[in-house]
């Protein structure tokens, strides 16, 4: 079992290393036609790494730069760049401060300068300015309700874009007269540019009618001011921005396949577009893993194994008051399903190194995880029902702690199987 766990940790590290944004940002910049002077604004959980790559490539062509990222995701100063850290997964006052800083920066631009925007996941909350008549509290309350009720990222962003003065293409409208280029690191299924970071400089594919429909679907009641704001349509045509979407969960899964092959596992990619409820996904992959284990011949080479791989972005319906994230919840559900099985391990990890409002990236569990949880005096079923996966996995020493990775391309889930 320990060798399986070690392989799992190495596969995680190699997979995430393959989707770090530096090389893809440099490649995208190489293919962009930009003026000699450039202002750079990087927004998202991978903003520091993306800005670092831009600075390395563009050097003194950067007149000024701004990095807006999550608390704790900065890795130090970068020449010519100002750094602002703000709230995630919910916006805070620093999110508004950051948006105003960005607006001030583009407002001072002249026609001889290109605006280069670098976006990654998390930008929706890190960078915010409510529409007139809407408060930050309104946005936080609505976002929190949608998250807790299990809304998916497309639904959440449709609402957020229609409450914001900087999302859904509205940031580009502050300066329709300047050239904008954007490199967008995808953290959404389908890689839609208007969904990633809520699309500040791209035309918006969602409508006011859809946004209102989301609130109705999840029984979220709102005041007239919010109704009026959402009814204002977002831009459907942005003509001064050219963009490229780079990085994706598909690439993350491909890297996982390659890593598994190098370690002697036969990989089976289940899907790179998982969007189901986290606990269901963890349970289902573990059920499949047990079935696969049951049909592996006893004569199978002990140095080979099978890997079940999945990627995507699951959801959590919050009904308890515990602490956790979607990857931890998937892992705890898998641990319950795998109890007593010594030839299978399961992990679920956020590629950005953080999972929900916690300092963990996810969880790595095995057939003895539940025994370790019970030894601490906790009941795994109760903790799962309380959405308290963090503390349950912590008691078993099964949390994955990577710190910020510098990228953000959805989640990786995997079961490793080897006949003993």
Task: Write a short abstract of this structure.
This protein is α/β, with parallel strands linked by helices and 420 residues long.
CATH topology of the largest domain: Rossmann fold
Low-confidence runs: none
Q: Quick one: overall form? A: globular
Examine the secondary-structure arrangement and name the CATH architecture of the largest domain.
3-Layer(aba) Sandwich
Q: How would you describe what is shown here?
A:
The chain has helices at residues 2-17, 22-30, 47-58, 93-107, 123-126, 136-148, 153-163, 208-217, 224-230, 249-262, 278-295, 326-337, 369-375, 380-385, 389-395, and strands spanning 37-43, 62-70, 81-86, 113-119, 179-185, 241-246, 265-274, 305-312, 344-350, 362-366, 399-400, 411-417. With 420 residues, the protein is an alpha/beta fold. The chain has 2 domains: 2-16 and 250-417, glycerate kinase, domain 1 (3-Layer(aba) Sandwich); 20-247, Glycerate kinase, MOFRL-like N-terminal domain (Rossmann fold). It has a 6-stranded parallel sheet with strand order 3-2-1-4-5-6, sandwiched between helices. Strand 1, helix 3 and strand 2 (62-70) form a beta-alpha-beta unit. It is globular and about 70 Å long.
